[in-house]
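User: Hello! I'm new to structural biology and keep hearing that structure can be predicted from sequence alone. Could you demonstrate with Heavy metal translocating P-type ATPase? Please show me the input and the output so I can see what each looks like.

Assistant: Of course. The first part below is the input, the amino acid sequence of Heavy metal translocating P-type ATPase. The second part is the output, the predicted structure written as tokens.
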Amino acid sequence: MRTWFHVPVRTLVPWAPPGHEPASEVSLMAPTLADEHTAAAATVPAPPAPAALPRRTRLLALPEVRWAALAALAFLIAFPLDLAGAPAWAWGPLYAVCYAAGGWEPGWAGLTALRERTLDVDLLMVVAAIGAAAIGQYLDGGLLIVIFAVSGALEALATRRTEDSVRGLLDLAPSTAVRLTADGEETVAATALAVGDTVLVRPGERLPADGTVLDGASEVDQASITGEPLPVEKRTGDTVFAGTLNGTGALRVRVDKDASESVIARIVTMVEEASGTKAPTQLFIEKIEQRYSVGVVVATLALFAVPLAFGADLTATLLRAMTFMIVASPCAVVLATMPPLLSAIANAGRHGVLVKSAVAMERLGSVGRVAMDKTGTLTEGAPRVAAVQALPGFGEDEALAAAAAAELPSEHPLARAVVTAARDRGLRLADAADFSSVPGRGVRASVAGRTVEVGSPAGLLTAAEGADGSAAARKADAGYAAARQAVTAHEEDGHTAVVVLIDGAPAAVLALADRLRPGAPRAVARLRALTGAEPALLTGDNGRTAARTADESGVTDVRAGLLPEDKVAAVRAWQERGERVLVVGDGVNDAPALAAADSGVAMGRAGSDLALETADAVVVRDEIGAVPTVVALSRRARRLVLQNLVIASVCIGGLVVWDLVGHLPLPLGVLGHEGSTVVVGLNGLRLLRTAAWRRAAEAH
């Protein structure tokens, strides 16, 4: 069930450096924004927050789950008692509970469909189960009931959990906002903001609306919208999105869109529409259930009515008709479909891939086009130091150790990457004092008596040139020229460049990048071979970074700078050409595409709740190589389904012909029926073996 792989996402909270309160950071970074409205804020009461909706539906909150659990429990208790030869009073009531608990809902659904002149397999299952019980085959009927009840419960649970996650997505946007007015500031509900309003966003707060920065500078984590692994620097004139997380600076933002038209609201709408309008993909046997159901019912009635019309014995005719219904009942056909798919699900689960349902497993094998996200999917989603380029007068270890010591108090993702790189080299980090952080520039600290600055090239190199009267000397300095040259080279390679200054002199340029997942190139090559089509990279990141990742992984179809609706448009375009699309992603921004695709796979460790709920399968261990393996395993399961259908059809056909042409004794009919059921069941269980996963991992 879906609860097996619920993965909590990170909780982002406002942060201040050790020894600093957030308010002091505001006054340090942007005093004009922090001080201008402090007094007014203290006098305006915040509106009450709306009552939070339950984020996840409890398992037993669904009636379908409760009835299915009761039916399965009664069956599991009755089954061994029946086999052990216990008296009928011991297991008979338990079978009755199983039939009633698991059969009333599909029976009612079948009767409802019958009133609409539609005959479905649900009603046939209930009738077949009752018919089996009428001639003493309680076990057969109970097994049919349990299979259908559990299947319906899983479907209801998956649907409800997806609805829960869509509601929870709205929690990304704050419920209140600080609106600036001529009289100061006021705290209002975010939904009350109008286009043209100006809002104040303090450090560590989420932005309440889509808009444009009017004043201030900060770094904004907008991974939930664009998928970019690193916070993006925002200054006057830049666009920001509701639900993204502000960094250490204060921003004054003009609201450009109504809350219902924000990017985060459009994501919710797209997921709901895609989930509601996606054509229902059914198991192979469900595609022929109408003809099969009608055929069995008509044939059974004919076998009963026609002989009676010609004076046949009532008891013999009824027995023959019931024998026909038993041998023609779809037990073997149902087991022809379910065991291979369920075995494939179990095998994939043992190897870290959790597939939601048999329908999802069947769909995975039919894909002919694969589209992948970059950050968190092909890459690990966390920056690392790819290179340390020391500048004249400094060594690599010296510059890296100084930078790591200065960055140690910071919680910025780049800071963590620098500290990790220094520790990986075994460098000793000195204590830092007088730490400060300035948005758009970087951090500054005193390390071992020297002033160390680490930050963006635009902030440090430009500021240094115009710092004082020695600007001309600094401009001509070879260190600055070398730093600018190194920055340009690394940025052209798709890296993020960070400059290190020691006592005002350029010491090194650090190149940071998001590391490619191990096995990504081989996974891309296998997906290309399995589908016969070139995998595509759909990302919200910038073009140079996307191109570098594509080159490293072997992807040639690269589409960068995409918003969630752009990814959905790409999926729809492929589908309009008749292609079945598999989308692999991990973030909120991937959820609409995951919902719109024919099949979706989410990376589990860093995946957002919405992506995990929307996807058909989850790679728990974030092994990208498991994606082509589960596709290959699904294709093998589909082949076994076809084999089983042939076996079941031949057995059922032979028994039916025998009953129609000659006289099939009821015990022999039951034996043949049960024999075919056992054969197709055992054949489907072959995919439980570890060797099946190993062969799928080697498939191309």
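User: So the tokens describe the shape?

Assistant: Right, they're a compact way of writing down the 3D structure. Reading them back into a model, for example: Confidence is low (pLDDT under 50) at residues 1-54, 277-282, 463-469.
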